[in-house]
Amino acid sequence: MTMHSRTNDIIISGHNLELTEALKNIVRDKSAKLFDHEEHIIRIRFELGYTQNVTKTEEFSAKGHIEIRGKPLIVQVASEDLYKSIDLVMDKLDRMLRRRSRLFRIKRKTPHDVDIPADIPKAKIA
Q1: How far apart, in Å, are the Cα atoms of 93 and each of 38, 54, 114?
Q2: Which of 7, 15, 44, 88 is most buried by its number of CB atoms within 10 A?
Q3: Do residues 43 and 11 lie in contact, with contact meaning Cβ atoms separated by under 8 Å?
């Protein structure tokens, strides 16, 4: 089994937060699992952010956006720990991809009737 490197398909940005190589590597490593589940992923964007609330509590947010054929998958999570936020976003995106895949399999396997209107005009042959 060969491992495909799709680092060009991952965009990581920070908001009020300096992105270190360690943070980037963690996001890349965890997102590799998402590419394994779905081969039709075009691009994944992650936005990591930091805010300090009025109550002086720190809050780290992570937002994941998967560009895929069809409707894009977007998830946002905030917690008191950046690594926890990253893990939660990855888990949610993973569940969304698995659910999407399962729904497509069910839809493909389920036969359904096609309603054809009775008043279809006949083609004229010249």
Answers
A1: 11, 30, 34
A2: 44
A3: yes
Q: pLDDT tens digits, residue range 9-27?
A: 899 999 988 899 999 999 9
Q: Give the pLDDT confidence of 39-52 residue by residue, as tens digits.
A: 788 899 999 999 87
Burial class (CB in 10 A: 0-12, 13-18, 19+), 64: buried
First and final C-alpha spacing in the chain: 59
Q: Give domain 7-106's CATH number out of 3.40.640.10, 3.30.160.100, 3.30.70.100, 3.40.50.800.
A: 3.30.160.100
Is the separation of the CB atoms in 7 and 39 below 8 Å?
no
